[in-house]
Amino acid sequence: MSIEGATDAVQLIHEALRRGDTALDESEAKQLFAAYGIPVTPGGLARSAEDAVAIAERVGYPVALKGASRVIQHKTDAGLVLLDINDDLGVAKGFGVLEHRGDGRLEGVLVERMLPRGREFVVGMSRDPQFGPVVMFGLGGVLTEALGDVAFGVAPLSEAEADELMETIRGRELLGEFRGSPAVDRGALVAILQAVGRMALEHPEIHEIDVNPVLIEGGRPVAVDALVTVGPPEPASAERLPRATEKLGAVFSPKSVAVIGASADPTKWGGMILNNMISGWFPGRVYPVNPKGGTIFGLPAFASIADLPEVPDLALIVVPAKLVPTVIEQCGQAGVPAAVVITSGFSEVGSEGAELERQVAEAASAHGVAMLGPNCMGVMSSWSRLYATGAIIMHPVVGPASFISQSGNMGIQLMAAAEERKGGIGKFVGMGNEALFDTTDLFEYFRTDPQTGVILAYIEGFDDGRRFLEVARKATVDKPVIVLRSAISSYGRKAALSHTGAMAGSAAVFEGMVRQSGIIATTDPDEFLDLAFSLSYMPLPRGRRVAIVTMGGGWGVLSADEVERTGLQLAELPESVLAEIGEALPAFWSHGNPVDLVGTLANQAPERVLEAVVRSDAVDSVIVLGVIGMGSGQMRALETACRLQAADAECATAMEVAAHQDYYKREAEFIKRTSDLMDLYQKPIINVSFTPVDQAVFTGEGQYASVILPSPLRSVRVIAKMASYQAFLAASRRGQHGLQPHSL
Asked: Which of 38, 236, 255, 351 is deepest in the core (most CB within 10 A)?
């Protein structure tokens, strides 16, 4: 935008605010658009019938007449739009009609050349309470809200992000050649989307923008209608307290820990935390702190922090809320680098608690204590055998994933599920009230943490969504980020005058942020853990071509349907691969993809088929259905036969044990072979069990581990999101941002 255009824009907005208006009239809005290079319909503002006729003759018939008003936002509903007027008399009469209907509330009548009706789109902007200005694109016209075919992106938009926004809507085919009309000038449409984002960033007084419709004239997008609402800018966020980020390492790798508020009662938090640390065999030094002293769980207790024989690396604080400010002061004075405040009773209970929380945060900041909480579930690091949470959650398998949770209960439930499935989580932190350090700070820490290979997060909201987006963009190019998101059904939705504001729900805006950042998002806790295990222990697929190897046809058909729904592709197996498979299977096998093993286990058929498929350059990933768990079903049949035919129970038991051992040995060998093939060919292979299994991850000596999921459809969805993440990484290497959706 030129300096002159910028000056015009500022003057328009400031003049409207000076008058106390809440919106520009359409003529002013289009002047603003023109200043930003957005094409608008030829025309002008008439203040008399004579002016209207002169403008109509200048732009050419037919014309449209629209009442220009700063107080009437929806002109069509108020009867202030007249279309297809073809002569001077019609213009003069129309001017009078609109003037009457406006009843003194018009600034004039906008006279514009009629554009041929055709493809209609909508472009808009609203201000999200978490992410600030967001740009909307979708199908426009009078059915915009009814169709709901729109997508959002956080401003500013890069060219690639603006182009991706257009590709995200269901009606994207309308952007190409359509019923004899030329394709839309995508470059011009990208420029409009970017201009709307810049407008919002450069003018915080603009609250909403609605351009509906954007008509396509010979491939060129033109803004036909315009709504711009204005008002005082949102107040700036309070400046955050300084944080000792460099000391966060002490939270997860302490050599010594003080439990302040330790108790001999295992039902109290001070007892649970201490007991869990001892039960987990924490190798460092543990110091219970309790004013009564004595011995707690066999450890000498100290009356105060000052009495400790050394300055601990980490303080776990479980004293009553009113004592926490004093304890933080004492930790700061003693030089304790990090603290986790588990105690509740702060901002979550009201204004008095909020004031207490402010005191705690200010004390920690002033003394350079890296404090997490308060009101949090604690921390865990299997790397350090530190199990300092309010539940008995221990992960003996040191996994590469680090988990941030904004809900203590949800975090512990997911941690327990991961432990049960033997997946292993490396580090966990319950964020609590985020008085000093917030979720984004922990994302930044784990982004550079060499022990973290995957970042997991359960998120309910952000104080500063734009800052989170910036950090997430950096993190996702280094390691996968998987987010389980809740509170998005109505959170952030507000009454609004524009289509954009009305449709900018939290879920839609979050979807846009996910696309821009490369985050892998889900609202399903089961899928969250499926993704966590798969991205922790398997290679990424190189593309979207999937081979399905199945023990039975039905599962293969279901999986193939899900492949299409998720945007994956069934790999076309070359004749050489089909011939190799044919050597391992009976002649009546499926001869295609999915590869139906027709129940064949003999002569290492599943292993031979799997290697033939995964070796092929036509395949990027493999899903194996029913090889694992097949033995369990056969075991039940054998058990029945044994009990019916065996002369005595002892004989039956011996037969069962022998068969049991044989089947499980074979499954163990197949699982190991899966891992070996991933190491060899660098392609993901997901096993789906025929029957429920207790273990999801089988680690071995190689680079990768075998992951077993309970559902064919869940396995396809995981592969789809892994492939999308790989596409995002490829786009990032080309200097672009995510060109594939991997969202909810």
From this structure: 38
Give the C-alpha separation, 515 to 737, whole Å.
Answer: 8
Query: Concatenated DSSP letters for 434-460?
Result: -SSS-HHHHHHHHHH-TT-SEEEEEES
Q: What is the DSSP letter of 152?
A: E
Which residues have a Cβ under 8 Å from the Cβ of 159 and sit 6 or more positions away?
Answer: 190, 194
* CA–CA gap between residue 16 and residue 14 (Å, rounded): 5
CB 628 within 8 A of CB 690: yes
Domain 245-459 top-level CATH class? alpha beta
Residues 678, 680, 684, CA angle at the centre, nearest 5°?
Answer: 20
Under 8 Å CB-to-CB from 220, ≥6 apart: which residues? 39, 185, 188
In this structure, which amino acid lies at residue 465? Answer: G
Tell me the per-residue pLDDT of 167-198, one tens digit each, with 9 for 90 and over.
999 999 999 998 878 999 999 999 999 999 99
What is the distance between the alpha carbons of residues 43 and 65, in angstroms, rounded to a whole number? 10
3-state DSSP assignment of residue 520: strand
Task: Return the pLDDT at 741.
Answer: 38
Q: Within 10 Å of residue 679's Cβ, how many Cβ atoms?
A: 14
pLDDT at 259 over 50: yes
Contact 109, 68 (CB under 8 A): yes
pTM of the entire predicted model: 0.89
> Closest Cα partner for 447 from 433, 425, 468, 422?
468
How far apart CA 672 and CA 702 sit, in angstroms, is 9
363-384 pLDDT, tens digit each: 999 999 999 999 999 999 999 9
Provide the strand spans (E) within 501-618. 520-522, 545-550, 569-570, 595-596
Mean pLDDT of 206-222: 93
Residue 656 has pLDDT above 70, yes or no: no
Q: If you compute the radius of gyration of the chain from its CA atoms, what whole number of angstroms results?
A: 32
Residue with tokens 């900018």: 504
- Adjacent-strand bridge partners of 135: 125, 153
DSSP code of residue 60: -
Give the model confidence (pLDDT) of 409-468 as tens digits.
899 899 888 888 888 899 999 999 999 999 999 999 999 999 999 999 999 888 899 999
Q: Give the per-residue pLDDT at 740.
A: 42
Q: Quick one: tokens of 730?
A: 């490829």
Q: What are phi and psi of 588, to 5 degrees?
A: -90, 20
Per-residue pLDDT tens over the stretch 473-502: 999 999 999 999 986 655 444 444 444 445
- Between CA 536 and CA 450 the distance in angstroms is 14
Which of the following CATH numbers is that of domain 538-710: 3.30.457, 3.40.50, 1.20.120, 1.10.3470? 3.40.50
Taking the CB of residue 254, how many other CB atoms lie within 10 A of it?
A: 25
Structure confidence by residue, pLDDT tens digits, 27-36: 899 999 999 9
Q: CA geometry: angle at 365 spanning 363 and 368, to 5°?
A: 110
Sketch the domain layout of the chain as residue ranges. 42-114, 245-459, 538-710
Token reading at 448: 């550079």
Q: What per-residue confidence (pLDDT) applies to 466? A: 93
The CATH T-level fold of domain 42-114 is Dna Ligase; domain 1 (3.30.1490)
Mean pLDDT on 273-283: 92
In the block, tokens 């729109």 appear at 150
Could you count the other beta carbons within 10 Å of the beta carbon of residue 77? 9
Least Cα distance to 255 among 127, 383, 400, 433 occurs for 383
Q: How many CB atoms lie within 10 A of CB 283?
A: 10
Do 42-114 and 538-710 have matching folds?
no
Angle formed at CA 53 by CA 52 and CA 54, multiple of 5 degrees: 90
What's the average model confidence in pLDDT over 265-289? 93
- Measuring CA to CA, how many Å separate 333 from each of 247, 251, 361, 392? 16, 18, 15, 32
> Angle between the 465-476 and 506-517 helix axes, to the nearest 10 degrees?
30
**Distance of alpha carbon 454 from the chain centroid:** 14
